[in-house]
Amino acid sequence: MSNPIEILALASACAAIASNPVETCEFTAQFDYAPSAEIEATYEQFEKTARKACFVGVREVGGVGMKNRIEQPCRNSLLAKAVLETGDATLIAHHQAKVGSKTEYQ
Questions:
Q1: Phi, psi torsion values for 20, nearest 5 degrees
Q2: In CA terms, which of 20, 45, 60, 75 is 20 to 30 Å from 36?
Q3: Is residue 26 part of a domain?
Q4: How many domains does the chain have?
Q5: Is residue 105 part of a domain?
Q6: What is the pLDDT along the chain (106 residues), one digit of tens a residue?
Q7: Residues 5 and 85 sit within 8 Å (Cβ to Cβ)
Q8: Dist CA 72 CA 8 (whole Å)
Q9: Would you state the pLDDT for residue 19?
């Protein structure tokens, strides 16, 4: 049985492209977490979910550079929050090993 986890990420880089400089983009995602699933499979599914949730079009944001400035922090934030939300120490350790250090969860 899987447990859905809903996570919200705000991408402040969107403010740079918006006509209103205080506007931010909001990204939400529902991560399906099955405690009985293998850690690597769960992590890969979480990465895929974060990638899909944080996608923005190149034309929408004014170029590849801005696209990357929006998507990367969004993916990192959603993924870290989803991993932490599971409370699964093994999954959290796996994530920390993948990112190379302890993740700051904000």
A1: -95, 115
A2: 75
A3: yes
A4: 1
A5: no
A6: 567 666 555 544 454 444 444 445 677 888 989 999 999 999 999 999 999 988 988 888 888 988 888 888 889 988 999 999 999 999 999 999 999 865 555 4
A7: yes
A8: 15
A9: 45
Buried b or exposed e, range 39-69, using 16+ CB within 10 angstroms: eeebbebbbebbeebbebeeeebeeeebbeb
25 domain residue, yes or no: yes
95 occurs within a structural domain: yes
Structure tokens at 88: 């699964």
What pTM did the predictor assign? 0.76
What residue numbers bound the domain in which 7 lies?
Answer: 3-99
pLDDT of amino acid 14: 56
